Structure formats: C-alpha cells, structure tokens
Amino acid sequence: MKKLQILLFLIIPMVLMNCDKKPEGADAKTGDSVEKKEVKGNSMPLNLEKSSLRWTGRKVTMNHTGTVKIKEGNVVLDGDKITGGKVVIDMSTIVDEDLTNPEYKNKLETHLKSEDFFDIEKFPTSTFEIVTVTDPTADGSVNITGNLEIRGISKSITVPAKIEIDENKKPTAASTKFNIDRTDWGIVYKGMADDLIANEVNFDLKLSL
User: Fold this and answer.
1) Per-domain boundaries in the chain
2) Contact status, residue 29 vs residue 178, Cβ threshold 8 Å
3) b/e map of 117-147 (b: 16 or more CB within 10 Å)?
4) Contact 83, 133 (CB under 8 A)
5) Which fold has domain 2-208?
6) Tell me, what's the pLDDT at 22?
C-alpha cells in the first residue's frame, strides 16, 4: 500500500504537468467572425506543393501530430503587401504521423473524421479567409486577422505571422504557428476519463506562392 502511494505521488505531478503544457505557438485571439471588405490587389494562387498545414493535439498520456492537405487557396497582393487571401482545407486528408502501429493510426484518423471531432461527412472542408494584415516590421513580423471556419462555425482569429520576401521585396511566403480552443468550434469530445484530451489544438500553417 505504501509503495502504491509513493508511485501515485510521483505519477500525479507528471500527469498534471503534461495537462498544463500547451503546444508551441501563440494563443489566437478569438472573437465573432468579422465582415470581409473588398481589398485592392492581385490574386495569386498558392503553391500547394510548398504550402502545408500541420496540427498537434495532446492528451494526458501523449501528444499526437500530423498534417491536413490544403485543397486550394490564394493570396491577394497589393504591391509589396498582403491584403487578403483564402485557404481551403480538405479535412478528409487528415493524417496522424506519430503512431507507428497501423491499427492504432487508422483508429485515430477514423475518430478524427467522425462526429466527435471534424465530422467530415457534413463538413468536408475548413477555411481560413484573411481579412486584415498589419504592416510588416523590419523582420517581417505581422498580425493576421481572418475568419476560421471549422464544422460550419466561423470565428475570427488574430495570430502573429512572418512574411518572407524576395530580392524585389515581394512577399513569397507567410507562416504562423498558433493555438485555438477547439470547443469554440463545437468540438467538445473530452476523451476517456483516464486520458482526457486538452482543448488546445496547435496549427502550423505555411503558405507559399
């Protein structure tokens, strides 16, 4: 009995630490969706081979990481500034990359596509539409505000991002790493009682032209 108490004394703090640890990235400032105004500039298609979206979710026992494919998208450029854009994400392509057991991997991916999570039968795509972008600092840092739609629910988010430019100072890529609270988009599945799932989900988005 005493050995069990000592074991629990050692394990419980480790579990609590894992629950409190958020994925790497800034917390998105979330609010009601905002009206998109007409913007100036030329629409440029995304280079889908170089653009990517990675995700990280966590629960008490472990983290899961993976990717979702970008179906299509564009960025609106007005001179050397990004003024708008839209990304369409194919939720049927969500995959896990950390599990090596094919059975466990398939089970997780199937669950992520189910009604408990992204419900891809009803909501096959998610979208992120850029509404405003602040002027870049000397190192290319900006704040991007846009409407993120998941499971048919649209919320505005503001996230920090980095803009890459070419020798002519034209934007060639943008990247951002941020956390959202999945419950804001109606994803409220908690997981098993002894292996609870955190509300925070991390996205690592890279857009290339």
Assistant:
1) 2-208
2) no
3) bbbbeebeebbbbbbbbeebeeeeebbbbbb
4) yes
5) Lipocalin (2.40.128)
6) 58
